## 1
Amino acid sequence: MNRQRVYIQATTQISIQSPLNENWMQNPIQYERPFIRSIEPNFRDFISPIEARRIGRLQKRALTTSLTVIHQSKVEHPDAIITGTGLGCIENTELFLKDMCSQGEYLLKPTPFIQSTHNTISSLIAIYTQTHNYNVTYSHRNISFECALYDAMLQFRLQKINSALVGSHDELTPSWYELLKKVGYSGNPSAEASVSFMLTTERNNSWCELGGIKILHQPSIEILKLSLGKLLTDNGLNLSDIDAVITGINGNQATDLPTIQIYKQLFGQIPLLHYKHLFGDSYSASGLGLYSAACCLKYQFVPSTLYYMETEDQIDNPQNIMFFGQSDYKDYSLILLKSSCGK
Amino acid sequence: MNEAILELKRQIIEVLNLEDISPEDIDENAPLFGGGLGLDSIDALELIVLMEKNYGIKLQDPAEGKAVFKSVAVMANYIEKNRTK
Amino acid sequence: MKEPIYITGAGIVSAIGLNKAEVLDSLRQHRTGIGPLQYLQSEHTELPVGEVKLSNEKMKSILKISESIPPTRTSLMGIMALNEALNEAGIVPSSTQCIGFVSGTTVGGMDMTEQHYLDFFEKNDFDHFITSHDCGACTQTIADYFGHFSYITSISTACSSAANAIILGAELIESGELDIVIVGGSESLTKYHLNGFNTLMILDHEQCRPFDATRSGLNLGEGAAYLILEKASSAKHRKAKAIGRLSGYGNACDAFHQTASSQNGEGAFRAMNKALQSAGLQTNDIQYINAHGTGTTNNDMSESIAIKRLFGDILPPISSTKSYTGHTTSASGSIEAVICLLAMIYQFLPTNLNWKYPMPEGIVPNMNDYSNTELKHVLCNSFGFGGNDSSLLLSKPVNG
């Protein structure tokens, strides 16, 4: 079967690193705090004050990264708008919840409720861009973004779409951070993430190619190996063609060690990259992981800050980077990115 | 500007989160909806909450609100006549 | 020609019954499940609701879930419905088979969060409910009860969540990723969204009257329903009986307003049109439409216009079964899909309760159980806030 090839035509982020650019590759911002909120650009450049009056913080970030990749890719009405968000619009959810729990069930305001449903992000982008096409939101813990990307890839493969705006958006309030910390779900550091990708079938001017994605629930190591093998052969690659593996290890020994063990079983000696020490952890962190890998392929270098082992040899002109994600040792994801530079 | 009207404008700006708009920018005789402010049905619901919370006036449905929210002046007049707090 | 997608099992829990047989009986007896609040602890006792007539405790005991694990109501209802679906299909999820599970929900574990939110910060007794709050946690809890799935995910597109879960399931099968995908949704009633809808002033204080001139809002409901979608060759290989077929589907966005539907029903029109096109069918092939029909002034007008735009002057029988179940929000897509399957299996038309007065320019809903023609193909609409509109085309298992 003639496989539809898919490219990342544009991507950008709003996170705890400098927003809407790749400054982090040269000058990463270092933090010492356990909980950091995103650095926001001036939203007025994207959204007028009157429109902004009923748009929550997370929606503003999502709209801004989306409009940026729409502008950069010149795809005004993507064939699909797909969002992944683990917690959804938790700030407005808590606003409504706090009022309801403390003042009772009368005189509650509609706006926080409207802004609190997960799908307001995708639908707001559609309203803003007048896009009537396929529109869906995934909310499945740490793999929400991967699920959104997977849906897009299925539709490309079925030749139903030629473009897709895929986003990974999560916010975190100080109060919900306290709750996550209490149950051991907090990151190191905990942060927020808004990342948008414009996927198209157009190779020209793309950042890189999206070779494929696999998401597996409670797989055995054999199944993981089989899936990895399939992903590689589908792309005409051998394991030795992979220049680096990027994972979501976050400095927490208890969870990092098992991840590294599986990484070794799957990838052997292939250089390991990490990104959460720069971007923090959140339900949408994997979006930033894939974004980091896309940056390396676009600019054809791997910033030293991404190497997990300081002794690692410099990777020159990276061609293939594998994203390897795991969530609670239940859900595993493999995403292959290939350079679209050169031949 | 009449103190009651000024106060009402401030409240409207606050509950509708109208950034960048000052009371002077709102013409109390101009239509609140379908005019320059670009308000919609959700804003009307917010104003209904404002009426009950601040003035003890209970509007049963958005349709009733339509007549009351014609302009800030009409709203202020309605509040003056019907307020219970 | 693409391989058909069969439905080899279905399960449902709703205000009008805890399984398909009870739901069927209620539909045929014109018995609504909407009534005064009984289980949800809300101050709004004036609002009629469609509750599942079981306490959480009772559901736990039926499902033999130990007291030490307190699942949310959304998960409990989901497990009950999925149990029925798996039994009918004769499937036991295990690691030897690749089975997907896609569930739609929006409130997730909010039923517990809202009871303990303030306690979360003060005490440690309810920490479990912090981890069960999110949508994914609910899906995971349901999946864990049954065993092994090779892919699980949660879709959250407000009131069209379950319909979109069904659409993803179809795409997973069509693209060859999986042979069997369990799809649907679950949503318990919560104070959170009861109050949310109340602030929008779209809840009727009487029984809802979809498509009636005097309609003044919806009644919220709750429930869960799941379908087993299976590639025809897999069903044949397993000798599983098909109870229906998913022959088409459409997802579109109204792109109009965060809560309101557009005047011309653009999103709804596109979703239904895509469903017909993907099935390769014409409007005159459709014998029944299960409308979204919430009972709000806005939805029923917008949906009427969309249906008329697509179908012209000759409309098939149309009804909204939300007059029985209440609006089961994220679960409504799969709950109403199961109702459509029952209609085709037992060849009857679900009626629209409480309708008296035609609305100007509106559709006139079906009030008669008996169909003049055989029900072969039916459309099932689910529209969500933000204009997330989806339509499913369900058919009898065999073509022709």
## 2
Amino acid sequence: MRELRYREAIREAMIEEMERDANVFLMGEEVGHYQGAYKVSEGLLTRFGEQRVIDTPIAEAGFAGVGIGAAMTGLRPIVEFMTWNFSFVAFDQIISSAAKVAQMSGGRVPCPIVFRGPNGAAKQVASQHSHSVDPFYTNIPGLWIAMPATPRDAKGLLKAAIRENNPVLFLEGETLYNVKGEVLDEDADEVIPFGKARIAREGDGCTIVAWGRPYYTAMEAAEILAKEHGLQCEIVDPRTLRPLDVDAMVDSVKKTNRCVVVHEHWPYGGPGAEIVDQIQRHAFDWLDAPIERVAALDVPMPYASNLETLVLPTVERVVEAVKKVAYL
Amino acid sequence: MAKIIGLPKLSPTMEEGTLVEWAKKEGDAIEVDDLLAEVETDKATMEFRSFDKGVLLKILAPAGETLAADTPVAIIGEAGEDISALLEQAKGGAKAPAAEPAKEAAPAKAEPAAAPAAASAAPSAAPAAAASESPAPDGRKMASPLVRRLAREEGVDLAEVGGSGPHGRIVKRDLEAFVAGGGSKQSPAAPVSGLSSGPGYERLPARVEKASQMRKTIARRLVESKQTVPHFYLTIDLDASPMIAAREQMNALLKDEKVSFNDLVIKATAVALRRLPEVNASWMDGEIHFHQVVDVSVAVAVADGLVTPVVRDADRKGVLAISREVKELAEKARTKKLKPEEMMNGTFSVSNLGMYGIEEFGAVINPPEGAILAVGALRDDVGVVNGQVAAVKRMKVTMSCDHRVVDGALGARWLAEFKKLLENPMGMLL
């Protein structure tokens, strides 16, 4: 085991898959000569050349469409959005083309493409650039969605995403790129399957479902709850939101009898609400309290740093929610 | 800020309590944990202590009153505070825990755009609005889905379980505490009878009273007994004169105390059970448990029902020891001081209505006991004594048997042995 940063894990996954399969290539704004806006693709241009690491104009609708066309004709593109906020310009390409072409061609034309880039709030990038886009895209059948929290999951899931024949949206986090974590050695070739949650922490007091950045918020809250209240939380990170590992969450709730779902997207709908719905239907007779959610507050993201902190899910809010469902 | 203090639930099953005595009077300073009053619950007399600090501004319920849990009983606040609004509120019958007017306005939640501050609900403001801690407005007893399932599986009547969650919701820990505390179980869901009358059935509406915990327990256990235990009844008539003579001899030997006929009946019962131990048995879920001890439950009438304290090892005790024990248990029963373990695990019951002139009756078995003996009155009769017609005393006893454990012939043999013992009390010494 080595320690890698999240960005290095993603880079390694791309290198390994590009080495393995000559059809894999990377395309996006500043991915080549600038080495990536967040230095994720550092060194890739030198290593693979301009044929396979392609700098695009600032035209998301255009290069998303080019990528989808390449996928339809047999290549395996990785299309990087500088942030997922910019994917809105390419919304129609993703939803009307990438998500639909396999179905509309009767399965004859698959679309093995990966769209990836940082998702969610960074630090003071204000309301237009702080979207957590998971609720928008998880609503669309035909798209596979990953939102890894740890470097190891990021690497293993990205390798699976590149090999996947369905279009995959790979939601990273700008504030996660520097996070360090253990990753298997280079020759391990670990491919983490979609639709398989990870039990990040075991416990019998309360299930916390969290993915992406809030996974770390939940882990911190769990330590506080263990120390101050002797309550052991079980943390389930679904890792992929489509497909979603409902069984893992339901099994956990059957054990703990209570559940808090923590997510960075807004509270109206989205995977947070979907998870609550699945759990209440499949574990109804095991619930000792209504399921609580800790989400971003239902407002456009403020620019002010102190307000931004309050809008995002905080450790304190997670602790309070768990105490509420545990009747503490 | 003055507040209304409600009658607390001092036991998990308490629905109402009687204020025996106030320990403070109006104007007294109150510290947290000060004794405010003594409250008699369904189980025992308990201390009602303050959670608040301040001055006892008003006593709303005088000593002696029996009140539902949460009924306003006092107002605590700072000296000289205006409590007229609270008095109005208390008069209006508001339940105490809801009576924190300052919190009801919840201005933070009224802001339309900002949705719930905790982001735990959907953005629509409606669900968050009704966040008071009062019980469900329709009086429904709330329980979590988990608790409802566990109660179903384990046959627990949730009506007897107190809830510690919001709005009195019964949550897992409440059920666990209830079961751990020897909470009673019942066979699942007896069908509801269709006896309820339509409107206008009665000329005057009945006075409706909520059944006490004891009545509910009696109701549940007797329904369980009559619905699940196949009863049959055997009556025997016996000559009571030897028993009367024996009692007179015994009491002549005693100073300041007397044994009763019933004490002799208990002794004879116990000896007969030792001699025919097959009767001292219980049907338990496909098994017959033959008890090695003879523990006789004695039915004792109390103000609002009856209880059955147990005389342990009655076969090994003398009549005087039995007599003293019964007196002590009966006194405890009347003052509600009986501990649950003093009423549990009898092996056979004796119920006596002779003192009311009842000649004979059939009693309901107290499960899981296998039988109960119903004792009738001593009555005058004419009999043949030493070849001469003479006035005699006779008594009838009726044994109710659980046919799963005691068959007719066995019951009859036991009654014959019992009769022999009472007609020849010296036989009990053998």
